[in-house]
UniProtKB/TrEMBL annotation:
Cited PROSITE patterns: PROKAR_LIPOPROTEIN, TAT
Record-linked InterPro entries: N2O_reductase_NosL, TAT_signal
Record-given protein name: NosL family protein
Superkingdom classification of source: Archaea
Leader sequence segment: none
Phylogenetic classification of the source organism: Archaea, Methanobacteriati, Methanobacteriota, Stenosarchaea group, Halobacteria
Length: 190
């Protein structure tokens, strides 16, 4: 089913992503940003998206998780999502309701060996639910309005490596922006 795969090796990507995440975490710690002790978790195969209810592992594209100061209504685990769109929508709604997000993680397509495939005329990336596939939002650049869609249709595609962002935009179009600058209007423009 895969049309093609990225040729770079996963260990090199993980090393580069780890270095980028460590540098970003150090800067965020100095600036009083997100809690550096929070780490992403793997998402269970049967976990439903906390925003839309779809089974996360059953759908293509970006996967996300948000760790909140309180553990409700998620019951002691981070909120987990089938797309970047669901991740941001849920977080924005939770913030509006007075909840405090401590860390947001999204799939880092610079850290995984993703598969690209066509389905029904749409271009999609594989999803990755293992903890090492995630990077902090603060370390990521997302591409909006590309040809690649996710579980909920048009989505944000995140990368920690600027070279990967440039390659992706050259091949699939879209506009790059820091993941921390995503707003409701960004989602509405997808």
């Amino acid at each position: 089913m895969p049309a093609h795969s990225r040729s770079e090796s996963v260990p090199r990507r993980r090393l580069l992503a780890g270095i980028a995440a460590a540098g970003t975490a150090a800067v965020a710690g100095c600036a009083g940003g997100e809690s550096n002790s929070i780490a992403p978790v793997s998402i269970d195969d049967d976990q439903a998206c906390d925003q839309c209810g779809m089974i996360v592992a059953d759908h293509p594209g970006t996967v996300g998780q948000v760790h909140f100061e309180d553990d409700e209504p998620e019951g002691g685990r981070p909120a987990q999502f089938c797309s970047a769109t669901c991740t941001y929508t849920y977080r924005f709604d939770a913030e509006d309701a007075g909840r405090t997000p401590l860390a947001t993680f999204l799939t880092d397509y610079s850290a995984v060996d993703q598969e690209v495939f066509e389905e029904g005329g749409d271009t999609m990336f594989s999803s990755h639910v293992e903890s090492e596939a995630f990077a902090r939002e603060t370390a990521l650049t997302v591409v909006a309005r590309s040809e690649v869609i996710g579980a909920m249709g048009p989505d944000l595609i995140p990368f920690s490596d600027d070279g990967d962002v440039d390659e992706f935009v050259a091949e699939y179009g879209g506009e790059a922006m820091p993941a921390t600058e995503v707003e409701r209007s960004t989602l509405e423009a997808l």
